[in-house]
Amino acid sequence: IAKSNVEICTSVTFTPNSSVFATGYDSGFIRLWNVESKKELLVLKGHKEKITSLLFTPDGKLLISGSLDRRIIIWDAYLGHIIKIIRGYWGAVTSLAINKTGTMLASATADNKIRLWNIKKSWKKTHELKHHVNTITKIAFSPTANVLASASWDHKIILWKVANGKKIGELKGHFGPISDLAYSSDGRVIVTGSSDGTVKVWDAEKAKEISVIASVDSSISSVAYHPVRRIVAAGSHDKTVRIWDAKRNTLINTI
């Protein structure tokens, strides 16, 4: 077990080949660990406040971090050096996402905006997306289409065309702030969780609700879609993880 005894871990991510994982902390520190040996490889010091989001580029060479200090830092994942710092936000970084090809980074901030950055063009900002009216909690690229999905405390999921930054769809149906979203591996389905206690499944192409697979007496804090099977997992504030068969809308297990 990888431990840091004096810090609260706030974010975790793996390299694409799963040989290394990174952990971010409320102190602003980031630690890299070897999966097999469980040994600490690097300690990255650059942020001044809590880490809110971590991700590796698809080739595993770069680690990207977002923080409450309103900065995004791009790190050399092998040496731990800072390659670039993106500043200038009017709010804390709440979520980061990178597309499948590793050419585009999306960042969401507490000023209710999403910014798109072209990685291949020296991290040039290409678009600023403005339609949410409250804090954006999660963003995710479709694994198969040139589309970005964003979830917010404004009870909405918005779909954006990455090429021009235009809004192309809106998913409505939650009656509380949306805490998390995830795509299925084929990009056809989006699953969302909300403080209204529901987990919803949506048709990503038609921007329509397919089903409500859960309605519990507790806020949903996180959701995940199985990479192969039609299975959804959700964590909630009642300290429970529930796993559902998304095809049959049946509960499989409670942890």
Automatic annotation (TrEMBL):
Keyword Repeat: yes
InterPro entries found in the cross-reference section: SMU1, WD40/YVTN_repeat-like_dom_sf, WD40_PAC1, WD40_repeat_CS, WD40_repeat_dom_sf, WD40_rpt
Keywords: Repeat, WD repeat
A Gene Ontology biological process term: mRNA splicing, via spliceosome
Record bears the keyword Repeat: yes
Pfam families: WD40
Name of the molecule in the record: WD40 repeat-containing protein SMU1
The organism of origin for this protein: marine sediment metagenome
